[in-house]
Amino acid sequence: MRMKILFTLTLCVMYTLSFSQGREITGVVTDAESNDPLIGVTVLVEDTGTGTVTDFDGRFTVTAETGNTLLISYTGYSPERVVVGTEDNYNVQLSFGSVALEEVVVVGYGTQRTKDLTSSITTIKSEDITKTPSSQAMQALQGKVAGMQIVSSGTPGSGPTVRIRGIGSFPGSGDAAPLYVVDGMFFDNIDFLNNNDIASISVLKDASAAAIYGVRAANGVVLVETKSGSYNQPAEIVYDGYYGIQVAQNVLKLANAEQFTDMALESGSEADISFIQNAMQRYGRSRINPNVPDVNTDWYDQILREAPMQNHSLSISGGGSNATYSIGGSYFLQDGILDMKNEYERFNLRSKVDYKATDWLTIGGNMLLSNSTQYAPAQDAWFRAYFAVPIMPVYDDMNEDAFPVNLANAQDLGYRGGQNPLSSTLFNNNRLKRRNLVANFYLQVDLIPEKLTFKSSYNHNYLSYNARNIDLPYFIGNGYQNPNSSISRTYENRSNQIWDNLLTFTEDFNRHNLQVMAGTSYRDEAWDQLRATGLNFPVDQEEAWYIDQAETIPVDNVGDNGARQYGLSYFGRVAYNYDHKYLLYGTLRADGTSKYQEKWGYFPTVGIGWVASQEDFFNVTGIDYLKFRASWGELGNDNVPASDGARTTDIITTAIDDQLVTGTTSLSVFSYLSWEVVEELNFGLTSYLFDNRLSLDADYYIRDTKNAVIPVENPSIGGTVRKNVGVIRNSGFELALNWTDNFSQDFRYYIGGNISTLKNEVVDLFGQAYVDGGSAEFRQRSIVGQPLLAFFGREVVGVYQNQAQIDADPVAVANNLEPGDLIYRDQNGDGEINDDDRVILGSYLPNLMFGGNFGLGFKGFDLSVSVFGQSGNKILNRKRGEVIFTSDTNMDADLAINRWHGEGTSNSYPSSKGIRKGWNQRLSTYFIEDGSFFRIQNVQVGYNLKGADLGSGMPDIRVYFTAERPLTLFDYNGFNPEVATGIDRQTYPIPAIYTAGLNVRF
Amino acid sequence: MNLYKTSFRYLFALMVIGFLGSCSDLLNEPAENRAFTDETDYTQTENMILPLIGAYGEFYTRGWEGIPLISVRGDDVNAGGLGDQQDFAEADNYNYNKDYWMFNSLWEVNFRDIFHMESTIEQIELYEQHAPNTATAEQYKAEARVLQAFLLFQMSRVWGDMFIPPSPDPSDLLVTPISSKAEVMTYISQQMDAVADALPAVNPNKRSDIPGGVTKFTALAIKALANLELENYQAVADATSQIINSGEFALEPDFYELFKLKGKLNDEILLELQYSDFGQPSGDSKNYLMAFFGPQNWTPKREGASGGWGFFEPSMKFIKFMLDRGERVRLETSVLFTDRGIAEIKSDPAYTNLPDWISNVTPSGDRINDYARALFASGKHYLPSEQLTTGRTAYGSNKNMICIRYAEILLMHAEALTRGATSSAMSADEAVNLVRARAGMPALSGVSSQEVMDEKFAELAMEWGIRYYDMVRLENYSELSYGGRTFTADKIFLPYPQNQVDQLPALQSR
């Protein structure tokens, strides 16, 4: 008996010892207004690192002792703290809508609370990223971040063009893409990530936020956090998948055979008319209209297809008191809408583990493997489909010599080119395999508990890139053949390492809150490449597609290249506030790089903030929170090369007496370059109004690239040498508004919108009045005081309608013009029309972008809609402009129908004859079109079933349907108005996507 | 224990920071995979030929539009290819568009190589300092000067007043005044005098180091060309006499084959652009884009051979001129006929009966079919399909482009003599009759200037605009006013490309 008591006592003692942290505390968390239980609320016991989340009934159980504080937080609700007393049960109510002030945002080498921010950061959460069916996470951000332009890419597996606050580098000189930081590792893009891998994406828009990334930060920084588990979280298993169909939208209508024939007959060109005759001889006459050949091919129809896409992901995450884990895998497959071997397949695996080894040491590791295969489209098929004449069939049995299929050849009708777009889609096979391995290991030491920590983390990204481009041989005609099969291979390896070491000190005393961080970063970036081409290999079996099997390996196409760069950085941050009312923020980064002649750059920033609503005197009804922010900072752009020109000696081969001999060549055009420096001023305002139902963020910025690398023309020899001598300014206003409320317990809704303006301006060009870009036919000019690379040409005021008008105009007489030719504005009034009359015709950058989203939830149903639009940008319709190179090809139906063909028929398009004249082919407003558009970006309807309602042990299920880009409205004569460079020659169309998806959560 | 642990933590942090400091040396690592000119080992003088070969490589790499633009304006040839490159056709009609890309491209490509030659000379001089004897270096430099002179000569013929590059740095042109055409031609003549003796006095095809490279006679030929432009006929006669007297050159007996593979490194050639596909069915290939000159539609004797683009059409005027003279060899060589073209000739009552050898089948058996864009194609830029290397299909692949040949030297010599110059090398009659004999034409005696000019027309049509520049020099504008065109003195030179005017102050004041 005594033994038994002793034993029990011992047990009790042991129990107390092992659970000396305290006792079981239970509770229920509910919505303050509706009294509904809140599911998935995080309950943390402060200072212990333990915690849990609420179950489906809002219940939680944690272990805590008297005096401990429970921190109860939930996205979209204001967190509550509860001090544990003698009670064992606590019912907590959270108020909805007091938004994210207490939320913690990632700021680069650390975190900050939203309310203490002085800079401009927008964070997008996982839920919003996975709504977009795409292989590209950045695509999901389109229209969601004020000031960030995302230009979609239709090519499966290709990332969109991303620009944050305009373009600060001269296109072609530096990359305008932002820096992506994925869990601490630097990337040029995040094409390898699956949307489901990502927990959040934070866009550091202003210099103050980005300056901690120094020389890499000038184009803005995008911080990506992959998913992780939480301590004391029960295992959660989630499957998410969708299947969908992509459908080409707004397919451009081409001139049909009849319209094309009309155009040719009106052209006055004997050659063009004879080709129509040839077509009628070869293919017969249409029975409907015997003056038209009996062929009517819609070439877009021939190369387009509906294409499926699907994504499946599975993740398991959770955590115990000492460890957290998150493991997941995903599979993505997308076919392109171009009818050929054109697809993107990706398989990702990831894991993230954190472990508290001792009370002062935490270690963790994070691995991500991404394996993708992309079959790239033959982009020129788009181009050729536009130009191929409709009076030619796809296949032509009379073309008996053709090999391997008897494709029709426009040369048989007399045209100069063979034209058939199927020779692009059938005889190309471009495969790119990318294997991306990202590893991250860290160790964190608490030097002074809760105050001073040291963290050392090592990141490695190993990327292998294996490209195989195959051109298959074909013969369609003497002038339309590829006698040699060719295989080109490029192998690339990229090995990037970053080792960061951080000391972080946090101290709150009285009402002073201080955070100090100091760190170092070591970077090593290595890259190498080997490439070769082989000609004539056995094409029939893909197993033989190796250079070893080739008949010849041309020496000139063998290359070996590599680069290695080192970087060393020291940086620090001080964030201080007094009572969360007066905010002060500063960072400084010293970046050393081996890339440039100049080794060290220093990038400072200072930010201040004033939370007016915290002042005692502040008492404005309706305004719950009001903060004014201002910041200044300097950033670097090291995406520019280290030097330009060739004081280097290049190898050149030439034929002398039928022998291939090697020589050297050099040219004394050279300059060393350095990084560009961006200086930015940002003024902002953050406010929450009407019981936190409305949030408002407004920013104004002026962003100057001070020593932009610009091309300085080499006199007489052409070409340019780039120098750090330009100044480019971007300025704009950004506003984001979000309203969230509920009508009743069951009926919740939100509505939000953002709008941003952009003014892009060249401020200085090293004394040059302008720098020319584009090509001679399609001139783009960067003039001081105007946007970068603005379209530059003549202004059309109308079309000459009759002979009297011609006779009365000396310009028309001097240039032998006829009715149906364009009338240009004589800008300088000298009575002549020539290149001196060219003016700026517009920029390819939109000056206004807006996005909106709307959502509502009713019981298990939810609906979300997002829209996006832009205006002010121009597109060069180079499809029409190409007529300058070949005038006898097809055109779009709009041009064919609305051409001038008699007095009063058109005052904007030339006649068929005119289209073929040099006079009308000069770059003018006739080729420059408005790129404004409005789009319904995404509509998603979902129905949620709670597992508890289905029966014990059943998972939560969500079924959803998505329509991505179901409707786009625009005036531009093309497939889509999203053209990154503004020059539409062959742009992969952006399809609409309709998917059905399933989400299961155990 | 605790103290030890705490110290360990701090020590670890300090070690990490200390290690990083030592990495800073890595910032001074040089860039990979670059051969900086500064780092070339110039003591290895056997490599001195490398920059020279590079110079030839650059010289042989001409833009496809360059030679057509230089050559298109005479009454021997039309632009053809109506339908695109309208401004190329306009230039043929003497309506010049200063904004047209071809103008600027010709300017830039030629100037780029003019400066390349300066850099080549600089490079050779760096080797020369270490060379045991300087003769080789002097020869190499002289070769680069000759190549440069040929480019500069073409530039000045096309644009008239032109820059003489003062240094290897293109930006020096910003402050360089422009030289008159006469100054440029005088400069070229003097340069050729200065370098001629450093060059081997052999036919280029006898050179062993660079077969087909520049020799003394190439320099003299360019000197003669420059002096012809200056109408300094005695200097023309002197330079051509030296070439004739050397005995190094001879006319290729078969005029037709001269413009085919047999013309490569032929005894007749003083300067040519060398190309090759190295006898291999695929792989490396160095070629000029002959397709530009080729017929757009043909039935080649060798199946699968590609046709051309249909530009560069021999003029009806030239064809009738040749028919009037009773020429066969040179007409058959210079012109590829189509049925449509033959019908067009016959539509003139004076030419209803054509010799029956006029046919759309070439002597090599390729059939030229009708195509909309032109009636005729250039035969001098045509390589018969049967002469293509097996496996190659590109039009004119493996064909060289002749720049200066002995026939032109002989005719320049003859012209100079008929215009009053004296020479002991050969009389004007002898020179002209050598050329005529090869073409199967009867001998003349007591040739006049006009007869020499006609001979040049017949012999050198479609080659480098020789006909146009002759007519301009002689102010014989009526010959250039043909086929609906009107030529006036203000049309002689192309306007400077707008792109160059925008950049170069010396051009802005003009």
Low-confidence stretches of chain A: 5-20
Radius of gyration of chain A: 32 Å
Q: Structural class from helices and strands of chain B?
A: mainly alpha
Largest β-sheet summary of chain B: 2 strands, antiparallel
Strand content of chain B: 5-15%
Protein name (chain B): RagB/SusD family nutrient uptake outer membrane protein
GO cellular component, one term (chain B): cell outer membrane
Domain SusD-like N-terminal (chain B): 91-202
Keywords (chain B): Cell outer membrane, Membrane, Signal
Walk me through this protein's architecture.
The complex is a heterodimer of chains A (1002) and B (510). Helices cover 10% and strands 49% of the residues of chain A. With 1002 residues, chain A is mainly β. Among the domains of chain A are: 2-96, Carboxypeptidase-like, regulatory domain (Immunoglobulin-like, Sandwich); 102-234, Beta Complex (Ferric Hydroxamate Uptake Protein, Chain A, domain 1), CATH 2.170.130; 772-844 and 874-930, no CATH class. In chain A, the strands form twelve sheets. Chain A has a 22-stranded antiparallel beta barrel. In chain A, strands 10-15-16-13-14 form a five-stranded mixed sheet. In chain A, strands 3-2-5-6 form a four-stranded antiparallel sheet, with no helix packed on it. In chain A, a hairpin with a 2-residue loop joins strand 13 (179-182) and strand 14 (185-187). Chain A is globular, with a radius of gyration of 32 Å. With 510 residues, chain B is mainly alpha-helical. Helix content of chain B is 45%, strand content 5%. Chain B has helices spanning 2-21, 49-60, 66-71, 86-92, 101-128, 135-159, 181-196, 216-229, 233-246, 255-258, 316-325, 329-334, 339-346, 406-418, 428-438, 449-460, 466-473, 477-480, 498-503, 505-508, and strands at 77-80, 269-273, 298-299, 311-314, 335-337, 367-368, 376-378, 401-405. Chain B has a two-stranded antiparallel ribbon with strand order 1-4. In chain B, strands 2-8 form a two-stranded antiparallel ribbon. A two-stranded antiparallel ribbon of chain B has the order 3-6. Chains A and B meet through helix 5, strand 27, strand 28, strand 33 and strand 34 of A and helix 1, helix 2, helix 4, helix 5 and helix 19 of B. Chain B: Keywords: Cell outer membrane, Membrane, Signal. Chain B: This is RagB/SusD family nutrient uptake outer membrane protein. Chain B: Its main location: membrane.
